[in-house]
Amino acid sequence: MGSLSFAEIVTIVVVILIIFGPDRLPEFARKMGELLSKARQATSQFVEEISGEWHDAADPIKTARDDLQGIKDDLKQAGNSFTEMLDTNLSGSDPNRVGFGTAEPVAEVPSQDEEDGEAES
After folding, report:
1. DSSP 8-state secondary structure symbol assigned to residue 110
2. Nearest-angstrom CA–CA distance, 85 and 102
3. 3-state DSSP: the chain helix, strand, coil percent, rounded to 5?
4. DSSP string over 47-72
5. Is there a contact between 90 and 100 (Cβ–Cβ < 8 Å)?
6. CA atoms within 13 A on the CB side of 22
7. What are the boundaries of each domain within the chain?
8. Are 25 and 16 within 8 A, CB to CB?
9. What's the mean pLDDT when you consider all of the chain?
10. Is 102 helix (H, G, I), strand (E, B) or coil?
11. How confident is the model at residue 67 (pLDDT cuts 50, 70, 90)?
């Protein structure tokens, strides 16, 4: 409605006066006001219903997204902890040992000479 110029509004009013006449103009204006009021009310109800439905549908999605973000953060923290543990345990350990550099080796990896000696016997 904001795009109508003053001249256009005057033209519309003159046409309405010609069609309905000055006697029926107040009745016409009243009915137009009622019609606009009902249209605004229907529009606001529609917007409220859509907003309510949208929020009802979006809440579980937001909750799932937050849960997944928490799981992602937990997995990232566990991966970082595991990487730190590996870096700490493997740094400075004997490369012939199998394990994570514990004080007690899990198993000794035989050297190449020992393997050749067993194969010749």
Report:
1. P
2. 11
3. 80, 5, 20
4. HHHHHHHHHHHHHHHHHHHHHHHHHH
5. yes
6. 0
7. 6-90
8. yes
9. 79
10. coil
11. very high
Q: What average pLDDT score do residues 52-68 get?
A: 86
pTM above 0.90, yes or no: no
Two structure tokens written together for 112? 């190449």
Q: How far is CA 22 from CA 16, 49, 56, in A?
A: 9, 41, 52
How long a stretch of residues is the chain?
121
Structure tokens at 30: 């009243």
How many degrees, rounded to 5, is the angle at CA 89 between CA 83 and CA 90? 85
CA distance 30 to 15: 17
Query: What is the C-alpha separation between 39 and 76, in angstroms, rounded?
Result: 54
